[in-house]
């Protein structure tokens, strides 16, 4: 069978087929249940368990979101607050990068 112009020998795979092939190669076990990775194991030392829980809640800013959802915030005020938070985060990242650059330059001598 002769191939015409522009035809390739390999069949074009759909993105879903490509995804399925790659997933088969990984051989990953499915998650145990829908809460896998979200649990904090409770040990006999409850203090450390509560510290782990509070750290995770702080990291995911659950308390902050809860506080903000207690009262209504006007759209414009919310927008400006979010803009300010984004700016602070970018600024902190830039400062962190500059500090790392200066420390590497100092280490070189």
Automatic annotation (TrEMBL):
<keyword id="KW-0687">Ribonucleoprotein</keyword>
<dbReference type="GO" id="GO:1990904">
    <property type="term" value="C:ribonucleoprotein complex"/>
</dbReference>
<dbReference type="GO" id="GO:0005840">
    <property type="term" value="C:ribosome"/>
</dbReference>
<dbReference type="Pfam" id="PF01165">
    <property type="entry name" value="Ribosomal_S21"/>
</dbReference>
<protein>
    <recommendedName>
        <fullName>Ribosomal protein S21</fullName>
    </recommendedName>
</protein>
<dbReference type="GO" id="GO:0003735">
    <property type="term" value="F:structural constituent of ribosome"/>
</dbReference>
<comment type="similarity">
    <text>Belongs to the bacterial ribosomal protein bS21 family.</text>
</comment>
<keyword id="KW-0689">Ribosomal protein</keyword>
<dbReference type="InterPro" id="IPR001911">
    <property type="entry name" value="Ribosomal_bS21"/>
</dbReference>
<dbReference type="InterPro" id="IPR052837">
    <property type="entry name" value="Mitoribosomal_bS21"/>
</dbReference>
<dbReference type="GO" id="GO:0006412">
    <property type="term" value="P:translation"/>
</dbReference>
